[in-house]
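Hello forum,

I keep getting stuck at the same step: I have a sequence, I want structure tokens, and every attempt I make locally crashes halfway through. Rather than fight my setup again tonight, could one of you with a working pipeline run this one for me? It's a single chain of 330 residues.
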Amino acid sequence: MPPQDTASSSKSSLDMPSLEKPPLEKPPPNTASSSKSSLDMPSLEKPPLEKPPLEKPPLENPPLEMPSLERPIMNSQRPRQPLLDRSQRYMTAEVSTAHADILFLWCCFISGLVDSTIYNAFGTFVSMQTGNTIFLGLGGATPHDTSKPYGWAKSFVSIACFSLGCLTFSHATRFFGKLRRITIVASFLAQTIIIFIAAIVVQAGVAEGDLNLITDDIDWWTIIPIALLSFQSAGQIVGSRAVNLAEVPTVVLTSMLHDIFSDQQLVARDNVKRNRRVLAFFAILIGAICGGFIGEGTDQMQVPLWIAGGIKFAITLAWAFWPQQKTSAV
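Reply #2:
Ran it on my machine without issues. Output:
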């Protein structure tokens, strides 16, 4: 066996790569590269969240006050004033005089109704004091054998009580305020009560109310309704003057007729005072006609008195709800 060529074998051993893998050597860490990559690449790990402090820092603003449990007052929920205060202001307010002539025209009707009734029963007036003055003047010359020798006494009582009523109502009106609601309502309420009292006196038989049985010239009990009705009639004329309606005096016809026909604008188209005077005249006339027919139909003088009292009570209620006087803003 020929000897192996040592050089050739060594050469092949050198040329042939070794089948064994040499151990991999770890490259030295590139410090610059790693630092550069650490700067360029974002870290996948999330930074730890900082926990908020448990205690809140003190507020610089002052502490807020606790809200009130009461509901806030809206415009539609304004605090209501006591009923007594509102009623007092309502009743002491001045009423408007616009269209007040309507109420006093009804007073004219009442005057005609009552006067015709009282004259039919007792032969005297309680509103028209002109006729009573004539009866009083004729009293001394009236012979005692006539049917009414003491008619002048009734007329005297009527004149005296009417004058006392004017004194009372006028001073009370000026003292409490002539246009105040409470003043006018109280005045007409007093007139209403007086008429009802007179009707009760007749209804109860204290004064004779049957027109067929009134034959005596003087029954002193008849002085009671005459005095009461004359006293209340004064309140009407005082009220008309208080609201500046002198053209509707409610109890006077002579001066009213003079003012109608002496008016320079008698035939003018627009003449409010003339219209009021004419309506007042016819209101008294219609009231007198109604009083006559009611007396003849019932033979009881208290019936027209109850009607007159009811109308005057309605006037009192009207004054209680009459519009208030408007005050101009300064």
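The chain has eleven helices and no strands. If your local run keeps crashing, start a new thread with the error log.
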